[in-house]
């Protein structure tokens, strides 16, 4: 059965759209990336913190987001010569603009009704709400998908997504799947290079590699209480953002800009390595996906901090690192339509297994 998965992640770089065939597994058929137009990126970013007239701004931004996503779906259908009627459903994550699990809410916008109307395809969306209602974090949700994809791979292993934030799934054939957000992924690296060099990201981590890690800044970042807590846990831009970094920098001696980037890269690698070792010290392979899988500097630091593990992209396992999350949301839509629970209570802390998603039929 053919499904479309759409992910618009916390990096706000763009919308990932993929076409998959779901049978026994989940096979990637085609994909389409749409860069986020600057004005929409700015509107969405502004909605990530409180401000005037939010409801109106959110309602307008989600219409623009749905128009863009629908355009991408049409491009994908035209290049694969498929018609809307051949697609069972779209699984659309939408765009997270708030994530406050401690206050029992998370907000993803993306007007699934408009997306269904514009594409003529049923849409499954609002995946996080039921898990939150059941007392869970509502994130991360990809662990069930990783569990399905990697069940035949040697375990114990970890599947690591480095997107705006990083989250890990720990698989061990003898125990229940674990998973949690490790902390920032690319979000601070992106924010710092944007602030200092007006570039959207540090390609291959070259700028970070040119700097020197500052121990004092590193330790002050690592002392953030989020890192001392065990899972279930998830995080977002509410906690880790440019002002968070700047408030720590204000307590330091002045540092060269590239040294801050190097320290951010080391910090990101260390929070990931520490959380993998704390939760599953027996891990021997770490399969990396998400945009951070392209950051050589970050992966080298991670490999150095995890000397007993093989750290490599999921590409090496035949699973496209860039499309993992979009594929996951196609599969989550399938689970919803088949009435299959897709949260993992050991990951999110929900009271039990739940079928996730709301259906917007055609
Ligand atoms: N060649 C590269 N070198 C370094 N970093 C890269 C490269 N390509 C992508 N990235 C990073 O990956 C980010 C995008 O990753 P991704 O698309 O996985 O994020 P996302 O979907 O927003 O994530 P999530 O929802 O998991 O937080 C970019 O913002 C950039 O920081
Ligand atoms: C609330 C939210 O959007 N969280 C994202 C974010 O990006 C990475 C990490 O933080 C993860 O918890 C989650 O996304 C993936 C798709 C998940 O739910 O598994």
UniProtKB/TrEMBL annotation:
The enzyme's E.C. designation: 2.7.1.170
UniProt keywords, alphabetically: ATP-binding, Carbohydrate metabolism, Kinase, Nucleotide-binding, Transferase
Organism name: Denitrificimonas caeni
GO biological process, one term: amino sugar metabolic process
Residues annotated to bind ATP: 9-16
Protein name: Anhydro-N-acetylmuramic acid kinase
A Pfam family recorded for this sequence: AnmK
Job description of the protein: Catalyzes the specific phosphorylation of 1,6-anhydro-N-acetylmuramic acid (anhMurNAc) with the simultaneous cleavage of the 1,6-anhydro ring, generating MurNAc-6-P. Is required for the utilization of anhMurNAc either imported from the medium or derived from its own cell wall murein, and thus plays a role in cell wall recycling.
Catalysed reactions, as listed in the record: 1,6-anhydro-N-acetyl-beta-muramate + ATP + H2O = N-acetyl-D-muramate 6-phosphate + ADP + H(+)
Similarity remark: Belongs to the anhydro-N-acetylmuramic acid kinase family.
Gene Ontology molecular functions: ATP binding; kinase activity; phosphotransferase activity, alcohol group as acceptor
Pathway info: Cell wall biogenesis; peptidoglycan recycling; Amino-sugar metabolism; 1,6-anhydro-N-acetylmuramate degradation
């Amino acid at each position: 059965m053919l499904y479309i998965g759409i992910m618009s992640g916390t990096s706000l770089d763009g919308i990932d759209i993929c076409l998959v065939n779901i049978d026994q597994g989940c096979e990637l058929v085609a994909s389409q990336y749409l860069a986020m137009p600057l004005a929409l990126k700015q509107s969405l970013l502004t909605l990530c913190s409180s401000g005037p007239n939010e409801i109106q701004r959110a309602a307008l931004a989600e219409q623009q987001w749905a128009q863009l996503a629908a355009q991408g779906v049409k491009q994908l259908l035209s290049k694969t010569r498929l018609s809307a009627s051949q697609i069972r459903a779209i699984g659309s994550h939408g765009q997270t603009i708030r994530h406050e699990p401690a206050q029992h809410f998370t907000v993803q916008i993306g007007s699934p009704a408009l997306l269904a109307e514009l594409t003529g395809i049923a849409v499954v969306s609002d995946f996080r709400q039921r898990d939150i209602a059941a007392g869970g974090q509502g994130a991360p949700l990809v662990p069930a998908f990783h569990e399905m994809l990697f069940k035949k791979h040697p375990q114990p292993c970890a599947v690591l997504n480095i997107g705006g934030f990083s989250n890990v799934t720990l698989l061990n054939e003898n125990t229940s799947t674990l998973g949690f957000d490790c902390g920032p992924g690319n979000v601070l690296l992106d924010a710092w290079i944007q602030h200092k060099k007006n570039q959207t990201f540090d390609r291959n981590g070259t700028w970070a590699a040119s700097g020197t890690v500052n121990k004092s800044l590193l330790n002050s970042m690592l002392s953030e209480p989020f890192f001392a807590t065990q899972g279930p846990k998830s995080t977002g831009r509410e906690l880790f953002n440019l002002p968070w970094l700047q408030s720590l920098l204000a307590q330091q001696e002045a540092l060269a800009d590239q040294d801050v980037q190097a320290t951010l890269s080391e910090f990101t690698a260390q929070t990931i390595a520490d959380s993998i070792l704390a939760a599953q010290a027996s891990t021997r392979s770490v399969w990396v996906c998400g945009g951070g899988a392209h950051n050589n500097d970050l992966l080298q630091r991670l490999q150095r901090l995890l000397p007993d593990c093989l750290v490599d992209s999921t590409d090496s396992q035949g699973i496209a690192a860039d499309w993992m999350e979009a594929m996951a949301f196609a599969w989550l839509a399938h689970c919803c339509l088949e009435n299959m629970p897709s949260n993992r209570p050991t990951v999110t802390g929900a009271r039990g297994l739940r079928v996730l998603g709301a259906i917007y039929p055609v």
